[in-house]
Amino acid sequence: MKYFLFIFIFLSLLIESALYPLPLSLIFAFMVSLHLNQKEASVIVFTEGLLLDLFSFRVFGTDSLIFLLLLVFLSLFRQKMHAGRALYRLILLFAACLIYSLFFYKIFSTGYIITAILSILGIFIYMERFFPVSLTDKRLSL
Amino acid sequence: MVKTDKYTSLLIILSILLLFLDFFHLLNVVKNPLESVIIPVKQEVYNAKMALSNFTAILWQYSKFNSLAQNEQRLIKENNDLSLQIQLLQEENNSVRKQLDAPLPADFHYIPALVVGISRYMEISVGENAGVKPGMTVVDGANLIGKVVSVTLLRSRVMLLNDPDMSLPAKTSRGVVGRVTGQSSQTIIFERVLQKDSLFLNDQVVTTGEENLPPNLILGKIVHITVNDTDPYKRAKIEPVINLQNLKTVFVISTL
């Protein structure tokens, strides 16, 4: 199933950089950070960020740093978020997408928001279904 | 205290290092060869998307298979070009000086470029190696597409008219001046028009020739006018004449 995840991430990079400025990579980075263990997730989001920088013409390291910082932030609340309602995760993911979009793409329209919500729901359901999390899987401690 | 995985810490440091190196263009040796791989990949994705959108359009208009939509686009473009020519000829009759200001003079040098993708910016397949520099104008015929904002060896990024950071001086075919700006809703607005000046629907909006842009490049036509008496200015919504999603090739003007 991880091979499919890599394919989806690569497709999301292409779509985001060549077709439509929707933060699909960020959505994947967010969900990967929550659903995979930190070691795996950090390598995936780092690589994803570098590829996005390369494809999207940004300064190398920008997105990888953003995604890694997001991962660290999410790791702090990983247990609580998985124990809580899925809605909280969705709201946080939507907020992250909104901030990222306003900063990098500067788009804010009804059609854009609807597309973003649908993408978030799609990726969210995919990750919840195929990469379920065990709450005993504690990777970070405070 | 937060304990972070050592790989994560290492990758964060590596990201910061890469950011620092690339900021000072020290990674170009690595990035330039990679770009020659990325361009064909993105080009294929963009072409596939165009083929898919054409296919769905044909499905929707199966009964009108003889590409009525394409003919309409061509006629609109021709009509706009001709309208612009009429306007120019009238001006030339009034003043010999304006003859010298005709749009797109022959001494302009055009660099053809393939469109690699359109996200927030349009990405084109020419860069420093073809002589492209930031600030150069990108056109399709007499239509302004945007301005080059950043360049690498092999590709360039073009800021489009609907970008929120885009702002350029413009005038209507009747001579009313204002500024054209992009909006976050991806629409184009003709604003800063004095209340005393008259705006009309379907009037063409073109560049004035200021701010290093060639004069009389078509930006679009007025489709909606907003007037608020308490506002010192009025504004209008502009619709571009060309559909950016159908563009395969554009031209960079390099003499300015």
Structure description:
The complex is a heterodimer of chains A (142) and B (256). Chain A has 142 residues and is an all-alpha fold. Chain A has one domain (2-130). Helix content of chain A is 76%, strand content 0%. Chain A has seven helices and no strands. Chain A has helices spanning 2-18, 24-35, 38-55, 62-76, 78-83, 86-104, 110-130. In chain A, helix 2 (24-35) packs parallel to helix 4. The N and C termini of chain A lie far apart (31 Å). The mean pLDDT of chain A is 88. With 256 residues, chain B is an alpha+beta fold. Chain B folds into three domains: 1-101; 108-161 and 246-255, Beta Barrel (Thrombin, subunit H); 167-239, Rod shape-determining protein MreC, domain 2 (Thrombin, subunit H), CATH 2.40.10.350. In chain B, strand 7 (177-182) and strand 8 (188-194) form a beta hairpin. In chain B, the strands form two sheets. A six-stranded antiparallel barrel of chain B has the order 1-2-5-4-3-12. In chain B, strands 6-7-8-11-10-9 form a six-stranded antiparallel β-barrel. The chains are: A mainly alpha (142), B alpha+beta (256). Chain A binds chain B through residues 14-21, 38-39, 42-43, 46, 49-50, 54-57, 59-62, 64-65, 68-69, 71-72, 75-76, 102, 104-109, 112, 139-142, and chain B through 1-5, 7-8, 11-12, 14-23, 27, 31, 34-35, 38, 41-42, 45-46, 49, 116-121, 123, 150, 152, 155, 157, 163-165, 184-186.
